[in-house]
Amino acid sequence: MLTLGTGCLGTAHFVSTVARSLARAFRYSGLIEPPVGSVPPVPLPPFCCSSRWARCMMTRPSSVAISPRREPGKVSLVYDARDALVQRNATHRATSTILNSDSRCSTAATNRTGAGRCRGSTSQYTARHNRSVLCAVPGERFLELQPATAAQCSSSAPTSCIRARSHTTGAAEEGRKKKQALAIFFEQHAIRIMDRQVRSAGEQLDVFRQELESLVAIMVSCCHRGAIEATGLSLSRVVRHAVQLKEQDPTLHRTVKQVYCRWRDYAPASPDDFRENRGLIWMRHCFLRHDTTDLREGSLLRDLLHHKLKLGECALYHERGGQRVTVEVLWLHQLNLIARETALNESILPHLDELLIVALSHIRVPRWCVRNAALQLYASCAQKLTGQGQQQCDPGADWPPAYTAFEEVACKATRTIRYMIRQLDGMLPAPTNGYRRSKRRTQPDHCPTIPFQLLVLQFLSKLEYRGYGQHHHPEPVAPSSATPCPPHLEMVGKLRAILWQLLGHEHDLVRKLAARCFAQLHDYATELPALLDPLVHELFSTRGSVNFRHGLCRTVLACVQRYVTLCRHVQRDETARASQRTATLQRVREMVSRHWHHETSGTAPFRYRSELLGLLHYLGFARDSPVLEALVLNRTAPNAFGQAVLVMQLNQLYGGAACTVSPAGVVSIDQALIDTGEPCAQSTALPYEVSLEWDRELDALEAAEDD
């Protein structure tokens, strides 16, 4: 029971009383009574929706008196927040209303029967519960609580008096600002209480707890993203300050943990709806992001990972082949926030393996909300290992650089790489011979495989094998050898075998990423030069599927481009670099000229011929070369798929619309329409990028019209 009256008890008592009243009005059941009519009012500074208002509240002298009994005739405000925050009863929904006028505002808790009004140049608020109404006039720098008349309650509120729960856009913005002002006040006063290190004053500690729970209640009950983030900043500063004072005053830190533990096991009504529970997730993160001292026993983050979620057991279950959901949607989003937090890098790196395994296992769950949360967690964790891609463009490079070594990632995330290898190996088609069919693990029919393969290949494409320690083990080590083979060498060998089979995948993007990964997982200095000749021979002599030949053609081009690009860094001057590039391309051209005769099939799809054209053009074959005519032009096609792309590339190569395609798929070149000038430079456009083919004709037509 609080009664405002005479007596100078100091600024701290006044601010504590106001803070307690606001906290109880917002979160708890409170009882505030107006003063007796003969008691003079209490001076109060003007309010404003900023931190200046909170600082002003703490610096102006005031007077407060506490009355332990309730006298008749006094108006009281009783507020129960359970219906508003937990049950969300439509007939009794409480809102936090802060009315702003002339840079002065005040706060009250209102329900469906409450009203807010502003009169003249002063700011007033009225909070009515059933028949009890409180009215404040801070414009005169006096807080005078008195019963409001029926005329005041029935008067319409102006545009500045907007409920925080209004559904209009302007009302949502006003509500965000008002909640932010309330959060700033609670933050400033809570930090002031902690700075004073009130250990024995249980009343002040109770005010601190109420303010902390009021900030939590604002975040949990609000759906506006701006209001959640603004309140979260205030809550984060309060929690961080309490953690910093943990050694001096453990009571404050213990209070923070008690408030968090009350909401740790809270189960919302819609556990799969992220937008509705965004405030709950961000509120928990505000506690977890600061209480992470070396993940020692008793820290909130350690308690979450080891005891609440049991992350290690979940990862072990999925490594053994488990398919069920072990981490719910909201906790996956919670782990994503933790993984994205830069301040938690040192704390989260030991658990990066487990987080990646949990994310990869949940990506294949049929439920979209689980897949979406797992995908975000996987992206955040993968970026910790591979780093963010560089935006700088090197025009002289034919191959995009990779800044992360496979050996380093294999040492940091060994379990993750092995899990990826097992999953990719299980997704490969079973071979025809029966002795391996039983050993290969089959995947469930309801689990999509292509999205998982794309994610893993995209991750592996950002890594490159640099041959660390290869000079110690140039060849595979026997099992009985005294010096065992490093784990990353075994992983590289398995991945190369898997990628070789993925070159024949039915999905075009899988083949493209597999070709890039295959080139990245070979050392450019020792392995790529020796690999080029066998690859070229396999390209023209294989009798495999068309998809495999298409992927193999991309692999040859990727290996040549990577070798040419990385060899630039060995030479010092531009002349040596140009001669090195010319010598490399000349050597590969000789390989193609030596092996292309093994191509006996006269039928090839347009897509495969288009890829061959890109390879031959990059190697420097002339457009009238017999190799190009035999492999690209004078061949039939089983269908017309990809015909337009090949025609555009040939027209760009020959400098005009000189290509015609017969019904059988044979391409003929009209010598009269060929540009007699130098061949066009290599195009940097994508294979499927549409380019104008009749630029010369359009220019000539425009010139004729001008004449």
Automatic annotation (TrEMBL):
SUPFAM superfamilies xrefs: ARM repeat
Organism ancestry: Eukaryota, Metazoa, Ecdysozoa, Arthropoda, Hexapoda
InterPro entries: ARM-type_fold (IPR016024), THADA/TRM732_DUF2428 (IPR019442), tRNA_methyltransferase_THADA (IPR051954)
Organism of origin: Anopheles coluzzii
Gene Ontology biological process terms, A to Z: tRNA methylation
Superkingdom to which the source organism belongs: Eukaryota
PANTHER family: DUF2428 DOMAIN-CONTAINING PROTEIN, THADA/DEATH RECEPTOR INTERACTING PROTEIN
Protein name: DUF2428 domain-containing protein
Segments forming domain DUF2428: 205-368
GO cellular component: cytosol
Family the UniProt entry places it in: Belongs to the THADA family.
Annotated transmembrane regions: none
